[in-house]
Amino acid sequence: PYLIVVHGPNLNRLGVRKPDTYGRRTLPDVIAMVQTVADAYGLDVRDVQSNHEGALIDFLQQHGPEAVGILINPGAFGHYSYALRDCLEDIDRPTVEVHISNVHKRESFRHQLVLSDVVLGQVVGLGTDGYRYAAEALCQRWQQQRS
Ligand code: DQA
């Protein structure tokens, strides 16, 4: 059994890009954090980062249907990608959306989150620690549904 971690555009630059906003942890650091949580539940992690919308959708269509849960930071796609939204709706797996920064305190174009109605919940503005909380939530949900 495995969790999926999906990262959208520019998140390959984590740790380097705007560290005051997005923190100093790199993408491999974040994936390792999620893996540590997943390990405690006996879950594997499969991850993808792409700057291309279609590549994320291809990955989700391939790996999503069998996943225990999906953790997604869609980056800016979260503000306007109806294609990603429709893909998550279609796959219909428990999904937690993470935004490192509090998008609601930033530019108005970041206030709209188009995945909102197809995700279980969102962790917004808690820095990269948010991934740990999101992973815990998905793992606990999976464990409870098994027992
Ligand atoms: C982000 C917020 C988005 O608005 C932005 O485009 C990102 C990162 C976040 O994690 O805070 O790339 O998703």
TrEMBL record:
Q: In which pathway does it act?
A: Metabolic intermediate biosynthesis; chorismate biosynthesis; chorismate from D-erythrose 4-phosphate and phosphoenolpyruvate: step 3/7
Q: Which UniProt keywords apply?
A: Amino-acid biosynthesis, Aromatic amino acid biosynthesis, Lyase
Keyword match Lyase: yes
Catalytic reactions on record: 3-dehydroquinate = 3-dehydroshikimate + H2O
Enzyme Commission number(s) of this protein: 4.2.1.10
- MF terms (GO), sorted A to Z: 3-dehydroquinate dehydratase activity
Q: What InterPro entries does the record point to?
A: DHquinase_II, DHquinase_II_sf
Q: Where is this site: Transition state stabilizer?
A: R17
Active site at Y22 (proton acceptor), H99 (proton donor)
Q: Where does substrate bind?
A: N73, H79, D86, I100, S101, R110
Enzyme class label: lyase
Is Amino-acid biosynthesis there in the keyword field?
yes
Family in the record:
Belongs to the type-II 3-dehydroquinase family.
Q: How does it assemble?
A: Homododecamer.
Which purpose does this protein serve, as stated in its record?
Answer: Catalyzes a trans-dehydration via an enolate intermediate.
Protein's recorded name: 3-dehydroquinate dehydratase
Species of provenance? Alicyclobacillus fodiniaquatilis
Output the lineage of the source organism. Bacteria, Bacillati, Bacillota, Bacilli, Bacillales
The protein's gene is named: aroQ
